[in-house]
Design brief:
With 330 residues, this protein is α/β, with parallel strands linked by helices. 28% of the residues lie in helices and 22% in strands. An eight-stranded mixed beta sheet has the order 4-5-7-6-8-9-10-11, with helices on both faces. The protein has a three-stranded antiparallel beta sheet with strand order 1-2-3. The longest helix is centred in the middle third of the chain and has 16 residues.
């Protein structure tokens, strides 16, 4: 998180999220503390470690591996989850407390190998570059499926990754990233010819200029989803109706192009992004998407509840549902 600045002049501010100073420094006002990786989580037995995917530009990740009982001399192969954290593109981290605890719980439940991507953040890093970082990270993971595909193979991926069972997922802005990665996977080749078995999007960050459902009919452009996007990416063509943030805007690519075999979308009743998430599901169905689609709506909960309150009963229920999705037909 950026350091607190008291004597410098503010150039612009996104209240509760960040300040940008005239000297170019950024102060982040939100986010949870950094936590180190752990060789064995005392509660779940999950091991974690931090690795570098790319030095320049710097892209890192935290790997989470469940505790495994060795039944023979061969390493057990596990589904691989490439995960993109939330935080409005501008805060939180693969190394933050809530993201670490959430993935530790999911990995213990699902018995998967998770790769949580530490992509660079806006506004220092332009949003299109964030998407590129995340695509590059997926390609790096996939490179472990081919002989000589990665100059220095990561042992956990090389030993335990089942590249016939690769998943992509994200929450909030991370779910937006996952969506855009899926669209790219539908048109571009992944290293080794890897196909994405499935993806889940929890509380996806989508928005648009025209209110839908229960969204406010007045001052729609003053709602937080609109303010965050236009603050971080003011130069994007079509603004808040760019297909990057509004996948069902006029002229957006068909959602039939989503590059996965199965898709789960979860929304929360009290989340202001709920109606967008449900409309996204309708648009996927109407597009002719040939994969399977599951919709999970959680009553009485708000945005990202399963991450910020990862120990409450409703969070654990959703995590079990996500784990079942990852393990289906495995």
């Amino acid at each position: 998180m950026g350091s607190i600045c008291t004597s410098k002049e503010v150039e612009r501010e996104l209240p509760t999220f960040l300040r940008v100073y005239k000297d170019g420094t950024v102060e982040r006002l939100s986010g949870t503390p950094y936590v180190p990786p752990c060789l064995e989580d005392p509660k779940t037995g999950v091991a974690s470690k931090d690795i570098t995917i790319h030095e320049d530009p710097l892209i890192r990740a935290r790997l989470h591996l469940p505790k495994l009982e060795r039944v023979d001399e061969q390493p057990r192969k596990l589904p691989v989850l490439v995960y993109y954290h939330g935080g409005g593109f501008c805060f939180e981290s693969a190394f933050s407390l809530v993201e670490h605890q959430y993935l530790t719980t999911l990995v213990a439940e699902a018995k998967i190998l998770a790769v949580s991507i530490e992509y660079r953040l806006a506004p220092e890093c332009p949003i299109p570059t964030i998407y590129d970082d995340c695509w590059e990270a997926l390609q790096w993971v996939a490179s472990h499926s081919v002989e000589g595909g990665s100059a220095a193979k990561e042992p956990w991926l090389a030993d335990h990754g089942d590249f016939c069972r690769v998943f992509v997922a994200g929450d909030s802005a991370g779910a937006n990233i996952a969506h855009n990665i899926l669209m790219r996977a539908g048109r571009d080749t992944i290293v080794g010819g890897i196909k994405i078995s499935g993806a889940y999007l929890t509380h996806p960050y989508f928005w648009g200029s025209e209110p839908i459902g229960s969204e406010p009919k007045t001052d729609h452009d003053k709602d937080l989803p609109h303010l965050v996007w236009t603050f971080l990416y003011p130069t994007v063509k079509d603004g808040i109706d760019s297909p990057l943030i509004n996948p069902f805007a006029a002229g957006a690519p068909s959602l039939a192009g989503l590059g996965c075999e199965r898709l789960l979308v979860s929304v929360a009743e009290k989340d202001q992004l709920r109606d967008r998430g449900l409309k996204y599901c309708e648009a996927v169905k109407e597009s002719g998407f040939k994969g399977e689609l599951e919709v999970v709506e959680v009553e009485g909960e708000d945005h990202a509840f399963h991450i910020v309150t990862y120990e409450k009963e409703s969070a654990l229920v959703l995590i079990k549902r996500l784990a079942a999705f990852l393990n289906k037909s495995c």
